[in-house]
Specification:
In chain A, 40% of the residues lie in helices and 16% in strands. With 518 residues, chain A is of the alpha/beta class. Chain A has four domains: 98 residues, Glutaredoxin (3-Layer(aba) Sandwich); 210 residues, NADH-ubiquinone oxidoreductase 51kDa subunit (Rossmann fold, 3-Layer(aba) Sandwich), CATH 3.40.50; 91 residues, Ubiquitin-like (UB roll) (Roll), CATH 3.10.20.600; 84 residues, NADH-ubiquinone oxidoreductase 51kDa subunit, iron-sulphur binding domain (de novo design (two linked rop proteins)). Classes of the chains: A alpha/beta (518), B alpha+beta (160).
Chain lengths: 518, 160
């Protein structure tokens, strides 16, 4: 019988040579006349171990990593096909503490299965949520999502069930379900990993939404920086259609739901839901004024449920195990699990799915092992380019929506970017304004113009011109942007700037340096 | 950017016609055109506008809004270099100055006719292995100066 060998085809794994390792193992096995069955999976999310090679043995799946293409002959010499010892041997992968300590509800299957095999998906518990939703009927399904306490995982944290109930309650000849897969925040990659590693879960979640609110057509809007996620999603949708998960009769029911993946074109603002809808309609991604809410008048003016990848991907678990079981995870009003993403200057970067409430320190030190450079942690940015920079002294803040807000920060999409003590926080503040200037859709003046003035003002502070006056001007500008912008880009770009000013004021008082032209 | 062909109006029209009835067809059509020709030729603007029943101004407005679409042809390879926070924390700006000082390649230089174009992007979702890049769609993690040197050499047709 052939031995199954698993290697990730996740784009992060590919970025450090997973394809070359897979090829090398394949040809080495052939050369030795050994019978192996290579399986390309998603990633487990332990990226410092990629390319990770897993082998199915009597003792379960054991891992070896990170493996360079040149090391594969050694692996065979060490008898890795039967779990032999090797300096890179990791033992049973499920027993690696980084993974064993997680509470994986959404990412339970990611890295285990062939992402494009619907049979594999079913064998690993897939489709039970959708089956239950079809048995329950729309109203009870929406009640279940409401009762679970699930809040939008894109960053705003709006209750998912309320969006669904609103759309379900509107009479219309056509409704839509739209997935916001425009994961543009630096430090986040959970949506990408899921679309590449377990795309049927997203499809199942969107189908649950579709049959519940009475939408027959869905769109997944994926950013163009994610070509692999887009390709995998397209292929998964085709297979879901062929397998009866999508189409005129979802899993043999009387309900129809179909999906299409759409590619963005490089615009951060399209992660904002109304900009995304404009873009899907074929227009410039300029935000719309709310109300009307997309739930009532969304895509092409029709009632539209629009949620993040992780929000949809949470619903199959909720339907399968029940709202009560889901709400048993988490704290306060932050219920369920959140896939955190450890990124930047970090020793053990990867995906850590935990119930809400763990502290930032448990994440960056406990899981992440501190900085990759080995220098002290100076700042941690949580929640992407619009999130606050937190100093070491705030690392004991629990990661839930309310505690983060109380610390003047936000959870966002769960991205955590670590910086060591070489970071210059005045430059990070400048970048926040520069990024806003580049990515502003132009609708609101404080965002469009204010961000450019912000860059100039930070430059003056760095150059030592009238510092107290310019710091005050920068704070005033931040206030105008916060209060005078319609969406989160202009409204939250001040958050990293003000957090840098408040927590790292010494970096704005250093001896003047010339600002490099950028 | 694969399989670029010289601009051809009738081929452009065929690409437009293939998707003109798709709801919200503008971006899918523009992507197809750029995929085919490597850029969006100004001559397609009236064709797209006509097919979608929108004005030429609106069509140009869409093309200019999105960073991905460009209106002039260029040859060579494209390295999309991430310069967002996560990659900053691992020294992507050092790579930017290395490219300029060592290789004379400026990032985002539209007029550059060298065989390697470096384009700034903000986040490729490979933030656990920063600095990250994509070269003609192929992901690269933990990018460093040596790797940059090898990419530049390969693009210039030199053996390493």
């Amino acid at each position: 019988m052939s031995v199954r060998v698993f290697i990730s085809a996740d784009s992060s794994a590919l970025s450090v040579g997973a394809d070359r390792v897979a090829d090398a193992i394949h040809s080495e096995a052939r050369g030795r006349g050994l019978d192996i069955e290579p399986v390309r999976t998603g990633s487990r999310g332990l990226f410092w171990l990629e390319p990770l090679v897993e082998v199915e043995t009597a003792a379960g799946r054991v891992g070896y990593g990170p493996i360079a293409p040149g090391e594969t002959a050694q692996l065979f010499d060490a008898g890795f096909l039967s779990g032999g010892t090797h300096p890179k041997a990791l033992g049973p992968v499920d027993g690696i503490p980084y993974l064993a300590k997680q509470q994986r509800l959404i990412f339970a299957r990611c890295g285990l299965t062939d992402p494009l095999s619907l049979d594999d998906y079913r064998r690993h518990g897939g489709l039970r949520g959708l089956e239950r939703a079809l048995a329950l009927g729309p109203t009870a399904t929406i009640e279940e999502v409401l009762a679970s306490g699930l809040r939008g995982r894109g960053g705003a944290g709006f209750p998912t069930g309320i969006k669904w109930r609103t759309t379900a309650g509107v009479e219309a000849d056509q409704k839509y379900v739209v997935c916001n897969a425009d994961e543009g925040d630096s430090g986040t990659f959970a949506d990408r990993m899921l679309m590449e590693g377990d795309p049927f879960l997203l499809i199942e979640g969107m189908a649950i939404a579709g049959v519940s609110v009475g939408a027959t057509q869905g769109y997944v809007y994926i950013r163009s920086e994610y070509p692999h996620a887009f390709a995998t999603s397209q292929r998964a949708i085709e297979r879901a259609r062929a397998g009866g998960l999508l189409g005129p009769s979802v899993l043999g029911s009387s309900r129809a739901f179909d999906l299409e993946a759409r590619l963005g074109a490089g615009a951060y603002i399209c992660g904002e839901e109304t900009s995304l809808l404009q873009s899907l309609e074929g227009k410039r991604g300029q935000i719309r004024v709310k109300p009307p809410l997309p739930a009532i008048s969304g895509l092409f003016g029709k009632p539209t449920v629009i949620n993040n990848v992780l929000s949809f991907a949470s619903t199959p678990w909720i339907l399968e195990y029940g709202a009560k079981a889901y709400a048993a995870y988490g704290v306060g009003r932050s219920l369920g699990s959140q896939p955190f993403q450890l990124a930047g200057n970090i020793r053990y970067g990867g995906l850590v799915e935990l119930a809400f409430g763990a502290t930032l320190r448990e994440l960056v030190e406990g899981f992440g092992g501190g900085t990759r450079t080995g220098r002290p942690i100076r700042a941690v940015q949580v929640g992407g380019p619009l999130g606050a920079y937190l100093p070491e002294s705030l690392l004991d803040t629990p990661l839930d929506y309310e505690s983060m807000a109380a610390a003047g920060a936000m959870l966002g999409h769960g991205g955590i970017v670590v910086f060591d003590d070489s970071v210059d926080m005045a430059r990070q503040a400048r970048f926040a304004m520069e990024f806003c200037a580049k990515e502003s859709c132009g609708k609101c003046t404080p965002c469009r113009i204010g961000s450019t003035r912000g860059v100039e003002t930070v430059d003056k502070i760095i150059a030592g011109q009238d510092r107290p006056k310019n710091v005050q001007l920068l704070r005033d500008l931040c206030e105008v942007m916060t209060d005078g912008s319609l969406c989160a880009l202009g409204g939250l770009a001040p958050m990293p700037v003000l957090s840098a000013l408040n927590h790292f004021s010494e970096d704005f008082a250093k001896a003047p340096t010339r600002v490099a032209a950028e | 950017m694969s399989g670029r062909t010289a601009f051809d109006l009738s081929l452009a029209q065929a690409l437009i016609d293939r998707k003109r009835d798709t709801p919200g067809a503008t971006l899918p059509i523009l992507h197809d055109l750029q995929e085919q020709f490597g850029y969006i030729d100004d001559r397609v603007v009236p064709l797209v506008a006509d097919a979608l029943n929108i004005s030429r101004a609106e069509t140009l407005g869409v093309i200019s809004f999105y960073h991905d679409f460009h209106r002039s042809p260029f040859d060579g390879r494209v390295l999309k270099l991430c310069r967002a926070e996560s990659c900053q924390s691992m020294g992507c700006e050092d790579l930017v100055s290395h490219l300029e000082l060592r290789h004379g390649i400026k990032v985002d230089d539209e007029d550059d006719h060298s065989p390697l174009h470096i384009k700034t992007v903000y986040c490729l979702g490979n933030c656990a292995l920063s600095p990250a890049a994509l070269i003609d769609g192929e992901p690269i993690g933990r990018l460093d100066r040596d790797r940059i040197d090898a990419i530049v050499a390969a693009a210039q047709g030199k053996t390493q």
